[in-house]
Amino acid sequence: MSTPEERLAALGHEVPEVAKPVAAYVPAVRSGNHVFTSGQLPMRSGELITTGKVGAGVTAEEAYACAQQCALNAIAAVRAEIGDLALVKRVVKVVVFVASAPDFTGQPGVANGASELLGEVFAGVHARSAVGVAVLPLDAPVEVEILVEV
Fold first, then answer.
1. Would you say the C-alpha torsion 39, 109, 98, 68 has a positive or negative sign?
2. Which PANTHER family is this protein grouped with (predicted)?
């Protein structure tokens, strides 16, 4: 059986460096057998990969890619907290916030960017919320937080 990192590599991804918090919080916290991540923005190499509202300047496809990057950053936060992604038993819950134009209703499709990646890496399905919001930190189009069981 392959490791989560090997499954990521097979998908053309790798675990990035942990994104630095933009305020007074930590990227992840362990409580008992669970690790909760803070909301992860679509940061790559210290920069947002795009900004703006989905449905008004940011396409659903671009937002899907942002959700994937957020999920990768959440995976990095989990690994930094527990040391080895093989310790993850399952992804329990995923919450995806989508900065949306008023008439954009495709939040679930955007959230699939995170869910599908996490499902491939950790072999399973999870509970999820996909929420449209007016604005996110730094004008990010997507923010993702996850809860995993270890």
1. positive
2. ENDORIBONUCLEASE L-PSP_CHORISMATE MUTASE-LIKE DOMAIN-CONTAINING PROTEIN, ENDORIBONUCLEASE-RELATED
pLDDT at position 67: 98
Q: Are 126 and 99 in contact (CB under 8 A)?
A: no
Residue 120 · residue 11 · CB < 8 Å: yes
User: How many CB atoms sit inside 10 A of residue 21's CB?
Assistant: 11
**Could you tell me what percent of the chain has a pLDDT over 90?**
95
Total number of domains constituting the chain: 1
Q: Which domain holds residue 52?
A: 4-149
We report the CATH number of the domain holding residue 57 as 3.30.1330.40
Instruction: Compute the distance between CA of residue 32 and CA of residue 12 in angstroms, rounded to an integer.
Output: 32
Q: Where are the beta strands (DSSP E) in 4-77?
A: 28-31, 34-37, 43-44, 47-48, 53-54, 57-58
Residue 143: both structure tokens together: 């923010």
**Model confidence band, residue 86 (pLDDT cutoffs 50, 70, 90):** very high
Segment 39-69, tens digit of pLDDT = 999 999 999 999 999 999 999 999 999 999 9
Q: Residue 150 and residue 148: Cα distance in Å, rounded?
A: 6
Alpha carbon distance 46, 21 (integer Å): 10
